[in-house]
Amino acid sequence: MKKQDESSAPRAPRAKAARGEKAAIAPVTKTQVFRVFAENPGKVFSYRQLSRRLGVTTKEQRDEVFDHLKALRKSNQLTHLQNDDYRLTDPAALRVQPDAGQRPERGRSRGGKSRPDGAAIEAQFGQDPLVHRRRDAGFDFPGDDRQRFRERPSSGGDIIMGTVALATNKYAFVVSEESENDIRVFTDRLKFAMNGDTVRVRLRGERDGRPVGDVLEVVKREREEIVGQLTVQNAGFGFVSPDHRKLYFDVFVPNEGLKEARSGEKVLVRITEWPEDPGRQPVGEIVRSFGQAGENEAEINAIMAEFGLPFEFPQDVEEESEEISDRIQEDEIARRRDFRDITTFTIDPADAKDFDDALSIQKLENGNWEIGVHIADVTHYVRPESMLEREARHRATSVYLVDRVIPMLPERLSNGLCSLRPNEDKLTFSAVFELDDNGKLYDSWFGKTIIHSDRRFAYGEAQERIETGEGDFVEEVNTLNNIAKKLQAQRFKKGAIGFETQEVKFQLDENGKPVGVYVKERQDAHKLIEEFMLLANRKVADFVFQKKKTKPRFTMVYRTHDAPDADRLQNFALFAKKFGHDLNLENPKKLSNELNSLSENVVGKPEQNVIQTLAIRTMAKAKYTTEPLGHFGLAFDHYSHFTSPIRRYPDMMAHRLLEHYLQGGKNVEAEPVEEECKHSSEREKLAANAERASIKYKQVEYMAARVGEQFKGVVSGLTEWGMYVEVEENKCEGMIRISDIPGDFFELDKDNYRLVGQRSKRIIQFGDELQVIVKAANLLDRTIDFELVDERPMSQRRNDAPRREESGRGRRSERGPERERGGKSSGGPGGGGKHRR
After folding, report:
1. How many CA atoms lie within 13 A of 134 on its CB side?
2. Which superkingdom is the protein from (predicted)?
3. Which SS3 state, helix, strand or coil, does residue 585 take?
4. 115 vs 13, 94, 165, 278, 831, CA distance in Å?
């Protein structure tokens, strides 16, 4: 199946072959190269984008494109920007975007001069057979393939309402409750709708059993601002090319909308005019410039803007936080259970400033332990319907980028009033448990408290107490650690799943540049805190659920996690089997045991990270809801988020609900709480995407300083155009193109998740260890390119080169033009999805 082109750009044609012969590959002409720029004046094209538009498939054609670009640049008809980007030197001579709301006469620019047409271009460059692909019904139908790809008409052309989810820069899906299946809409029929926009769609047929439609109207736009790189033209206007890979249009910026922003800067542009004609571009104005693209501040700020993250708190919110008194009144202390005389401490990362949980411990007369999990009483300070409350509800979560935190609450609260700093009285909301040395729970208590932390431990300091048995509070830390281990064993015995993702951390210099990348090691001190937080979250949820025995149960904010989808689980089992790991799925009750056994079996093996990462992707996503559905991964019947109200709004909601029920309040209406749960889940997903984007950028920035260096890596993804390799020591992932693998021409065997050499039959598969060299690191695209170390003798390399190229050319001739580079891997589970291309 041929994919839709980015435009109706001319393609490098195939020379007509004699009967019985394979079609020859025609050369790419200078006219074809120039025509792409002439028909898209003002648009910037990279060498890679240009090659895709021209349908380039061979090394000879790639060399021809490069030579033509060089010649056009030398004649000053094209301008070379940075990296591989080119544009027309004087696009104003070919096309000028009209001002908002105005359309000049057809064929004329603002200055009244006629635009050169195709005849004028051919007069300059000579004639050449050009193939123009015609757009029809959202698809391209070149040649005789038109009937084959004609859509099957639907029964009615129904009009429905739905939400846009961009899939690629070629098409989107519209998700609607009015349709069982998502509706595919191609970008030339989207009316410039973006992710999350609400649209009206007319159904107009089916393709491959999936409904296809056209957007009639964008009912509601979620955002009218886009982040991208600005290119300013000689004529005094500019274009913003979006950073978001799935966005399919540039934004035209007239001179008065540039606001002193300069070419090459990362900017935030607000769209002021949405055209009806899909052949035109939206018009916008620059709202904010972040600085030169590629610089740390510019890129991180651009990521924040791309995901709609706030740069600062509104002034009235800051002022409201400053007005809150830091004095604790005696009558407030009298209403609370006093823990100030009981040994209490916090354990957090060394660089943490917001301490929202503390542990207290004391031995009871019966020999058991009273362990308190004390959580910052944020809702005491953030009152309902205050400006602080509204801002926290909107943000829903703190966001942890590589070099900064975007907090949910102003610093006055997050790092001051609410932070459980040592040697200060602090107001808390607590879950207090009576446990024995074996982790058996005898009693629970929940309520408002006041504490006085005796010590602030960094994780490393607490770990020293565990490993050496020396230091202050060593008995308390080790007692808590021993009980935590028993609690963890109980969880796994009941079916909790032990797969964990590896967290990448960076060492940054004073300018924010990464000088080191390492994988964060989870030690006993981390697991100690985790187990007691899990205990508190679980028992709070159980308490509310059990408080009313009949339906409807008391409304509560639950953190739920569904069992994995059976089909996805089966695919994962087949994938694991390729590495010799059997996963028995016959008994659903033993599924967690099977997954945990697999997790243990892959430890230390090359495929460990690939298997564990894919296992986590196979699992359903956790979410917030008022439905008490349980948590599959933790094997809890009921689970909530109670322990991090400084950084999560659902925890604040849980605090308010628990306090209400402790005071004898009646059931709370579920629907408004459910809406807040949905909002929080969406913001959590957005924050995770922003965090991943910042990590990827820093990984690319780190590897950019190591071009030419050699690393050991593991194959982490396979596609038809390349394989992804993850460096073992720092988890930086890059791609090696199939055409660049030395020694042979490789093809994807997607059924077995491997590449196979056409001549040598060499197999490269998931989990294989390889030596790679950093070939390039593109900060603007956030991509890393590797090349495979070729350890063969030089004579063999020279002899193989012509044969390999000839073999590859033959294969490509049989397959036709290569598929569009980009998107997710089609080479099996987990392939290439993390690499932005």
Report:
1. 9
2. Bacteria
3. coil
4. 27, 5, 38, 20, 46
Rounded Cα distance, 184 and 172, in Å: 6
Angstrom distance (rounded) from CA 96 to CA 92: 5
- Range list of β-strands (E), 315-385: 337-338, 344-348, 357-363, 369-376
Task: Tell me the mean pLDDT in the region 191-216.
Answer: 90
DSSP 743: T
CA–CA separation, 213 and 33 (whole Å): 33
The tokens of 327 are what?
């004095």
555-584 pLDDT per residue, tens: 999 999 998 888 888 888 888 887 888 888
Phi/psi zone of residue 643: left (φ > 0), alpha (ψ -120 to 50 degrees), beta?
alpha
Q: Give the DSSP per-residue string, 145-190.
A: GTTTTPPBP-SS--EEEEEEEE-SSSEEEEE-TT-SSPEEEEGGGS
| CA–centroid distance for 647 within its chain | 20
Task: Give the whole-angstrom CA distance, residue 561 versus residue 620.
Answer: 6
Q: Give 185's strand partners.
A: 172
Residues in the chain: 837
Q: Yes or no: say if 403 and 695 are a contact pair by the CB < 8 Å rule.
A: no
635-681 pLDDT, tens per residue?
999 999 999 999 999 999 999 999 999 999 999 999 999 999 999 99
Q: Is the separation of the CB atoms in 643 and 634 below 8 Å?
A: no
Tokens of 817: 């033009």
Which tokens go with 139?
A: 């698809």
